[in-house]
Design goal:
The structure is a homodimer. By secondary structure, chain A is an all-alpha fold. The first copy, chain A, folds into two domains: 51 residues, Arc Repressor Mutant, subunit A, CATH 1.10.10.60; 162 residues, Orthogonal Bundle (Tetracycline Repressor, domain 2), CATH 1.10.357. In chain A, 64% of the residues lie in helices and 0% in strands. In chain A, helix 7 packs antiparallel against helix 8. The longest helix of chain A has 27 residues. The radius of gyration of chain A is 19 Å and the shape is globular. At the A-B interface, helix 7 and helix 8 of A face helix 7 and helix 8 of B. The structure holds a DNA duplex.
DNA sequence: GTCTATACTGCGATAGAC
DNA sequence: GTCTATCGCAGTATAGAC
């Protein structure tokens, strides 16, 4: 997310990615184009093709960067929502040492997972780079090792946060994560389309809180079906 | 949703709308264009402009038709989920005659509202015309009375279904509807982007059920905060 | 009411000069 | 590594023939 504007004889590759984020934030995927990115940086429309073979490879680099940044934002929000369990979020053992199945540790884990929805909403509203960009269908054919790693790390982080709640098995963590992402992405998408326009400038925070609360409800339901 | 293919010297206007739905179902908004619609119908690229002044007016007509059809699908699903209350879904009085605040009538109303999410998911997967089309930002400037009426009727129907649950006030019905729509739209959007691809051909029904269950959890949470 | 033909715009991508 | 110049293509929209 560096924004140095050192385009001429600087790191044009990084500048292209940064400018792509700006474009996505302003107009969404609809208005993203190689030509528009070049125009924004004041370089010729041919310049980007020295760094990326085609449009999809540039978008893939953006996707990888978004996955990295989004994961960081999610981890930050999770930590802010409550301290992680002593054995870390990677533990898959459902029987935590000396704690009841629905004890305070599980409640804190639920808070951290719920915070994911708010973090997702805030990040995507600010950057325009949500799962529709990170997992854009046109990127399936692009070979991009960095993107593969970062999207994998992002999903692993989400699954870890879900597993840390008292969800019985790893298998149940997957649909739980999908539900959290679905509700967060739904709020984000409706917001981007102007659905909550009447809310005024502080609408972002209002909706972010609502997304978090909705996620909490989904987590609660998963544990008491 | 008639599909007569009577384009030459038939009702081209209706055929354009029907063909637009096909395009949206296949490629989403991204691939929708006046030229592609004309091509699909075997008419010249100029022909649509005798019926719609520009692209946005065609899309607005599609939006209105989608709102109409989606509302019908939602009402059908709601009725299938359980019989409506005797005084109909338009009643806003929170005190139903002779029933406890969280009685069986309220539970049935919750089932009907939850069914909205499944109906939305199924409709949009089949047609590609969800809220991102119905409320597309580029339609704000289009004067289209039919669309205005149909979107209004759609929202009224959703608010009626939400109010029929034992939600304390009409004010609380609005965020509840928004939450339902958000989760339904989130599942739909992720599905369209290939997020649940591994599910096979029956994946549509699986995800539709999950969207319905998620909606039910949100409704439950709204009543017991 | 639909056709052909056309003007214009914007994007993706390449060739070759510097 | 970036430039200018250019090609090809797709889409929006209009003019005028039939």
């Amino acid at each position: 997310m560096s924004r140095d504007r050192a385009y001429h004889h600087g790191d044009l590759r990084a500048a292209l990615i940064a400018a792509s984020f700006e474009l996505l934030a302003e107009g969404g995927l609809r208005r993203f184009s190689v030509a528009a990115v070049a125009r924004r940086l004041g370089v010729s429309s041919a310049a980007p093709y020295r760094h990326f073979p085609d449009r999809d490879h540039l978008l893939s680099a953006v996707s990888g960067a978004a996955a990295t940044d989004l994961r960081a934002a999610i981890l930050e929000a999770a930590v802010a929502a409550g301290p992680p369990a002593p054995d870390g979020p990677g533990a898959t053992d459902p029987v935590a040492a000396g704690s009841a199945p629905a004890g305070p540790a599980a409640a804190a884990a639920a808070d951290r997972l719920a915070a994911v929805a708010g973090a997702y909403f805030r990040y995507v509203v600010a950057t325009g780079a949500g799962f529709h960009v990170i997992y854009a269908p046109e990127l399936y054919a692009v070979a991009d090792e960095n993107r593969r790693e970062q999207t994998r790390a992002l999903m692993d982080t989400l699954l870890d946060l879900a597993t840390a709640t008292d969800v019985p098995s790893y298998r149940q963590a997957v649909p739980l994560v999908e539900a959290i992402i679905a509700v967060a992405h739904g709020y984000t998408s409706l917001f981007a389309d102007g659905f909550f326009a009447r809310g005024g400038p502080q609408a972002v925070e209002t909706v972010a809180v609502r997304a978090t609360e909705a996620a909490r409800a989904l987590i609660r339901a998963e544990h008491r079906p």
